[in-house]
Amino acid sequence: MFPSDFTYEFFTLLVILDPVATVPVFLAVTYGMKWRDALKVAVAALTVSFCILTIFIFLGLEFLKFLDIPTPSFQLAGSFILFTLGLSMVTGKMHEEIAKMPPNASILERSIYPLAMPSIAGAGAILTVVMLSDNNARVMTEQLQTTFVVLLCLSIHLVTFMAGGLIIRYIGMIGIQVITRVFGLMICSIAVSGMVIAIKASFGFN
What we know:
Structural class: mainly alpha
Oligomer: single chain
Largest sheet: none
Number of strands: 0
Order of helices and strands: HHHHHHHH
Strand content: under 5%
């Protein structure tokens, strides 16, 4: 069980959520939008992510037990989805999918996929909050602490998104595509690492 310590939880979740790695996805989703509309997309994506992670903080472990899903299986499936996202970033298919989005797409439609999930509230983040807020060992105040830490980390996401929105003025679409491909490769590496860990856990390897 992870220690119930504010500093430990903060840095653990900050590393897992990785506010920098999600910036290229945000830039791609909001390219060509007015600053105010891009801000709405960021807030909507972070709100959806916060709701998902909060649900798993309080009910996640029981939910997985109810469906009889071992945590390694959940991690493996989530890592595979994250890998497909990273691969689509590397190959440029993510930009093609976003380009097919209708011009009148709502703020919520733009914010959910691929920004809120799986970029922000992915399998790694979900499993981390489930472990940090272990329903069998944590009291309500400790789970509320984890919820506050999540909120704090997502606030940092908002800052990086807005900073990215300023950078886009100088790098343009070509710059976004280059950055997206580089970060896509990093996301693929993280996903493969997650799959290896899940496979080892499933078969009892150290």
